[in-house]
């Protein structure tokens, strides 16, 4: 058996495996080698999907109930990211804008977070940016009326929480996904949280 025959066979078998796992032409998974090693439910992996929400291209739509964030591309398409959301009742709703961006941001828990979760007091002085930081690789800071809402779209060092309601209100993405979203999103971008 020659080398080309084996390659064609592997291509056909690989394609059949994708079809059997539910991949279709409706959405196209967009994945890096890092993302493929992250423990996350496959339905929350980043992919390009059909989208008819009516928002302008470049808008970010966060659907907290579905646990998806959509980056509207226009032409009936969006990039869809799986997200972790705030615990019950701890979510920002409505419109905001990206007022600031940071790579490997530092993090300091808010006073209300420390009241609810006293173990966070150990971080009252702040946590420097890095792999140990709960904000992950990047953060997009949500503002209203020129004021910081204290809510963020950010990475996480706990990727297995994507798809769950576990945060203090911020929207979590895998580090790979927040880096991708960060690269697409300028300061001033409109964010709609529903």
From TrEMBL:
GO terms for molecular function: glycosyltransferase activity; peptidoglycan L,D-transpeptidase activity. The active site is at 154 (proton donor/acceptor), 170 (nucleophile). Transmembrane segments: none annotated. It comes from the Bacteria. Pathway: Cell wall biogenesis; peptidoglycan biosynthesis. One of its GO terms (cellular component) is extracellular region. InterPro entries: LD-transpeptidase, LD_TPept_cat_dom, Transpep_catalytic_dom. PANTHER family: L,D-TRANSPEPTIDASE, L,D-TRANSPEPTIDASE ERFK_SRFK-RELATED. Belongs to the YkuD family. This is L,D-transpeptidase.
């Amino acid at each position: 058996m020659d080398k080309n025959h084996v390659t064609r066979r592997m291509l056909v078998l690989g394609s059949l495996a994708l079809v059997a796992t539910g991949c279709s032409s409706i959405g196209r998974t967009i994945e890096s080698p890092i993302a493929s090693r992250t423990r996350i439910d496959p339905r929350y992996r980043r992919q390009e999907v059909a989208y008819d929400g009516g928002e302008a291209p470049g808008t970010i739509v966060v659907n907290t109930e579905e646990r998806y964030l959509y980056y509207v591309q226009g032409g009936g398409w969006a990039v869809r990211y799986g997200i972790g959301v705030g615990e019950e009742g701890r979510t920002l709703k409505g419109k905001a804008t990206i007022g600031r961006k940071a790579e490997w941001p530092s993090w300091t828990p808010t006073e209300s977070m420390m009241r609810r979760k006293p173990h966070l007091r150990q971080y009252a002085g702040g946590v420097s940016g890095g792999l140990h930081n709960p904000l992950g690789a990047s953060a997009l800071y949500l503002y209203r009326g020129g004021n910081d809402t204290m809510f963020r779209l950010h990475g996480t060092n706990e990727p297995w929480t994507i798809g769950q309601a576990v945060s203090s209100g911020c929207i979590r993405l895998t580090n790979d996904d927040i880096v991708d979203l960060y690269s697409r999103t300028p300061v001033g971008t409109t964010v709609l949280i529903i």
